[in-house]
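Colleagues,

Please find the record for the two-part complex below.
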Amino acid sequence: MIRAGAKVLLEVKGLRAKVAGVEILKGIDLIVRAGEVHAVMGANGSGKSTFAKALAGHPAYEISGGTAAYDGSDLFALAPEQRARAGLFLGFQYPVEIPGVSNSAFLRLAYNTMRAVRGGDELDPLEFHDYAREKMKLLDMDASFLDRAVNDGFSGGEKKRNEILQMALLEPRLAILDETDSGLDIDALRVVANGVNHLIKPDNAVVLVTHYQRLLNYIVPDYVHVMGGGRIVKTGGKALAEELEARGYDWVSGKPNKDPRLLLT
Amino acid sequence: MIAATHPYIEALLKGYETPRGGVSWLNERRAQALERANALTVPTTRDEEWRFTDISPLTKVHFRPVAAAPKLAMADIAPFIAPEATAHLVFVDGIFAPELSANAGLPYGIVVTNLAAALGTHATVIEPHLARHAGFEQEVFAALNTCYLRDGAFIWVARNQKCPTPVQLLYVSTQKEAAAYPRCLVVAESGSECTLIEDFVSLGDAVYFNDAVTEVVVGEGARVQHVKLQREAGGAFHIATCAVAVAKDAQYASHAITLGARISRHNLNVAQQGEGAEVRMDGLALVSGRQLADTHTLMDHARPSGRSKQLHKCIVGGAAHAVFNGRIVVRPGAQLTDSSQQSRNLLLSGKARVDTKPQLEIFADDVKCSHGATVGQLDAEQLFYLSSRGLPEGKARNLLTYAFGAEVIDRIPVPSLVEQLEETVLAQTQTVDQP
């Protein structure tokens, strides 16, 4: 929800980033205020996942220019775990499998880490189990998820639910969800989107990174940004996503379109 | 007579008394072992079987045989006793401590006692097996152990009997420069079942030497689960040989965990003596500092339709060194053998080292044998995933290191040990220095 005077959570200016020496992000500007839902869309290779990972502090992504202020302080001065503890959350496009670590132990460790930061008491395994079960209902997840190893042998849909479960447990102030919709069938998409919708509150914000418009049928964005060539090339409201769906990414990338009349709009 | 060719062995044999009286067949075997101990020499890295394991520091310490063990209180050893192991035998510096042991109330047909006592009551069970499976012809440490063989642990499970709870053998070391010779014989008759825990611990941080030999006989269709925990003091030396004879359709599973000792060597030799036997060999060595942990295994498929599955893992930090040599022999005629071996190694520092060597010798043509070895570091994507959830890097590393070991630990059939080892490994990974 767009509100005048809402607090700025994230302000990115002229962000440039490299992967393996190749510049992928070439100057991104973005302002996210509390309560807002932003969609970052773009064709494959446009840099949208790089943008998400760079904000979360993935070590393979080197910031080569620009600034990002998170809640008023320099985001890039923080280590990834510090960003997480400050309330930044990245929902992974490909959640990592960690055989040998039980999901419940991992979730509890992450949860208690955040609790400690926020000045709450840690939950013991039994208390946590009850707490997690409540959150899992939201995502239509079976209790057996807690006993399995982290993402190990999970289907694509199970992995994505597990990501949103983490979001529900950690209650981030800024959640960046990287292609949370990819690999989901329509029912799973509805469940996951419903989960996210429940977590959107006036004091937090969500950035949805997605290739397809269909997720935005369920989670309605306040802003839609279209990336191309490592920049945000167009920003608009929800209608922009629908237009993209109809016209394709070539329309904004500036590549010649088969129908030249479309370029006039 | 003592006439060792090697001064170190001569020193170890100093004060050796030729057995008088007692059981004549055992005296004979001891005499043969003494002869071999005299003739053999301490292996060096020039010996193929000890190529990566330099045990010369062992020969620089003046070990002496243990004369008497200190009296320990129950409270001293209580933390080491697995609650599940209602039957347990405790040996202090290699000497049986009946006052600390518990072996009453076992069902009929299950005997857990010390060898010296059992020689009087179960000689016919013991005679065909004791010092028959663990060869000492070429093995100086097995020869030394055997020539000192006076007592030890004895477990007998009669035909079709099931030992309801695990049996724990706790070897507690207390004295510096002590050389002890733990000995164990397990005979699981056909159709029987038992779970054995061999646990080597220390009180204090003395430099001592445990030279252990274990023989396990798994009768036809019997099932033995064998946990070995080596958590000796940091300066200790531990050289152990475990020889297992597996009969037709029998099952044997070994879970060997190596945590302690300055230098350790674990030899596990499993002989499949009947068709259709099934063997599992799990191993985990977690070492740091300047530790050296060597595991040598031999799976001898001598009969058809045997199955063996092996997973050996090493987590090596500091300037530590882990060695794994996994030999699998499939003899002519051992058709339809199904064998797999995996060696997985995690190096936590630039100075850590691992030598892993699969050794397959296959002389039958209709068999399935696979093996693989990997050496690596912690996965960067897994580390980032954990830090992106707020976990500090050190904690994330510990968790992943722990998880690597958990695959082996979680399969141990004694829940309290799993829990205890999980804590131990977590604590130990926290002290492992980071690269």
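The two ends of chain B are 53 Å apart (CA to CA).

Comments are welcome before we finalize the supplementary table.
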